[in-house]
Amino acid sequence: MIYFDNAATSWPKPPGVAEAMTRFIDEVGANPGRAAHRQAIESGRIVYAAREAVCEIFHAPDPLRLVWCKNVTEALNLALRGLLRPGDHVVTSSMEHNSMMRPLRALEGAPERHQGAPERHLGGVEVTVVECSPSGVLDPAEVEAAIRPNTRMVALNHASNVVGTLLPVAEVGAICRERDLLLLVDAAQTGGAYPVDVQADKIDLLGFTGHKSLGGPMGTGGLIVGERVDETQIDPLIRGGTGSRSEYEVQPDFLPDMCESGTPNVVGLAGLEAGVRWVLARGVQAIRAHEVTLTQALIEGLRSIPGAIVYGTLDPELQTATVSFNIDGMRPSLVGLRLDDEYGIGCRVGLHCAPTAHRTLGTFPDGTVRFGLSAFNTADEVEIALGAVRQLAADAS
Ligand SMILES: Cc1ncc(COP(=O)(O)O)c(C=O)c1O
User: What average pLDDT does the chain have?
Assistant: First the structure.
């Protein structure tokens, strides 16, 4: 099996991840922050160690301003629904994942397409979607031009999950500081694979997911809340037990507790810490260099195949290790099926939860075939996959 579906979730996980999770189950097991016995204290230590590791990788100064969520989708919902109010305006890009686009459309008050939809209690937020180029490139000047007097936030992914194109978050961060706006970044595709520095890049809210390049298990993720965000203005998505201020019937008003109700996923966070520590030990820059080399070989190889169409910037320095392509005359779904059945290559086909991005790239509605590489893939695997695509393209011609 060649696993090229890392843009969806990474596999295999780094050494130590499964062991850390097993250790928690076998030897710790207790609820953190809710009791004073030694197992509970060890559980709390694991949660805090995971906060420190994630903050280290993103250069976030305060581990207590990291809110655990079950994934980046929840983190983005928390940032958007928690901070935006009717009358506010948000600027986003046309390369967003539905995890950004759907909560934004709901805040805008867009009717949802299902039978018997309940009366909406959201609405009134204005959204501007800045069009990216057909290779997914966002021009920061267009973001600036979209700013209005009531703009409160710019919300962008750091890299497209369809074609890997990197968005200019640092440039937009500088604009946001100048115009006193909040910058929310979805780092699902870059965390652990590309340097992210919330301070240098002037990111106020960073959503991350644990199960991709950070090497952790599913069910882990979070939102890093910068100093410029007034946490008392965040409306938590849920309320409940936090283990703190138990004497009050109302929600605490301090981070992270105010946004972390209910028993956390400590087994997952034990694995996430191990994953992030592995990434830090190997080095994000070293992982990035490895992935650039593989991406270059993949893009060049695909472009040399008659009938293969490659999307995006075609420059490995301007993107992550996610490459989208099609074969002329063969639907992406059939390409994916044959790659799996005949060559043992696992990839993802279709729209990748990002219909707006596919409209931008000109690949809507059929989508593309997506190869998502990771730190664990090799040049040999890329060569084998290129041979398979070459054969399929020959069959289709
Ligand atoms: C850019 C981007 N945003 C959001 C998500 C959603 O991630 P999760 O399902 O972990 O919340 C993904 C994952 O596919 C993604 O690539």
Answer: 96
